[in-house]
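Q: How do we represent a protein-ligand complex in a form that can be generated token by token?
A: Start from the inputs.
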Amino acid sequence: MVLPYSPRYAYYNGKLQSSTSASSFQTIDPSTSQPLANIHTTTHSATDAAISSAQKAFPAWSATPPTERARILQKAAALLRARNDELAKTETHDTGKPFSETSTVDIVTGADVLEYFANLVGGGGLNGETIQLRPNAWVYTTKNALGVCAGIGAWNYPIQIALWKSAPCLAAGNTMVYKPSEFTPLHSTVLAEIYSEAGVPPGVFNVVQGAGDVGAYLTTHPGVAKVSFTGQVSTGQKVAGSAATGMKYVTMELGGKSACIILPDADVEQAVDGAMMANFFSTGQVCTNGTRVFVPESMKIQFEKKLVKKMAHIRAGDLFDLSTNFGPLVSKPHFDKVISYIKHGIRADKATLLYGGLETPAWLAKHEKQEYRSGYWVQPTVFTDCTDEMRIVQEEIFGPVMSILTYKTIDEVVARANATRLGLAAGVFTQNLNFAHQVIGRLEAGITWVNTWGESPAEMSVGGWKMSGVGVENGKKGLEAWVRNKSTLVDMAGEVPTVFAKL
Ligand code: NDP
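Then emit the structure tokens for the protein with NDP bound:
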């Protein structure tokens, strides 16, 4: 059977490598469950070769002046923008996200971050500081690249995640071996080719393919200085654990169960729009989703009425029709997981099903594209009358499932919003900005929004608190995660401490 995309292999030494692996798997179009391409699992010896290619490239790349690195990375950003629609099409096939979304968000936000870090290092962002101690003595600091870094990505924003990791990594003078999720590998070698075309030297950006065991091999490899990981908390714990054995630097971008708090004075229309954005964009497969929607008791009826009316604006269907804004879930295992949570919500938690549920979406039976009937489509679903103890309220579902909870007082809602081991994101809707900042200041989360949800520009450092992660990506602080500090004390008077002087 001829598949729509060419096979994917490892990429190192500046080129696509032919496979030496006996094992391969297929990546699947989630809208139809049809295979898209064969992926050849990278063997341990080929992963060693990818790491060795990154090691060889490191001395010259880290010594390349930041302005020169910046010029090359800016060129890569321009190539990404020029190929936006072609790359977005690939991402739509691989992830099941509508083209209306991938063509306006996924590549755009990746290219923005690449341009941001190129400009940052080109403009002196890697300069250290000088501290004058005495007239004849001072300390200066330098920021030094770490070496070979591993990037391990999740499947929800494949090319964006690859760029959010590789952009600051390469800009700071490091080299990278990247492993995409086995569910969404198509972008990875295309990105490697784009970097090469822009002038990134061979070995600076490399790709290995495979499942968790390939990732695990990377995280324990002595040649790797840092692991930047995006994925589930449980996997992050394993990755951080094995990285700690080798005392590697880590950045952990993990899961969430964020609180979206509608304050009593909120504009209900705006709050409903915000809550929908916080739950149904990307079919709910966004780490920062505000899946616990806290509504004042007195607003519940009005909020739910407006919400149910607006749910009709969610349009599933042909993924390349620009009016489609809702796709399938990414894979069969993920589809089974989300369905099991919806079942649990109805049968065990006994929450009230306000919208959606388990039935096959009505549009699917009528759609002319028969192949869609084998895809991983679910209905956007809203539960209400939820309580904090319910499993659907406590655990990350990572699908289009909103839980509405009511509250009476601000102290109560803040305490309940914080009563989770996760702390990725949170947000409030209100017309009183003092009130907004007072509540935001009390929320235990690393990414917060006021009267909006989800935007994550290159300038904004993002990272989770508590079990949701370690460190940040993006913004000026995001660059610090890819360098180590060296402090040097200079004494021009030669004032060596005299503790050993003759008495
Ligand atoms: P997983 O944790 O299942 O996988 C993430 C990556 O880790 C994949 O490439 C996976 O490989 C790899 N992996 C699996 N096991 C290991 C291991 N033992 N050692 C090293 N690597 C391993 O996450 P998902 O892909 O399911 O992504 C969804 C999760 O990601 C959600 O929890 C979501 O909240 C989180 N996320 C967080 C973000 C943030 O910025 N905080 C952003 C986006 C998502 P493979 O899949 O190929 O088996």
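The pocket of NDP is lined by residues 152-156, 179, 181-183, 211-212, 215-216, 219, 230-232, 235, 238-239, 253-256, 287, 396, 398, 424, 464, 469 (CB under 6 Å). Residues 366 and 373 are 10 Å apart (CA to CA).
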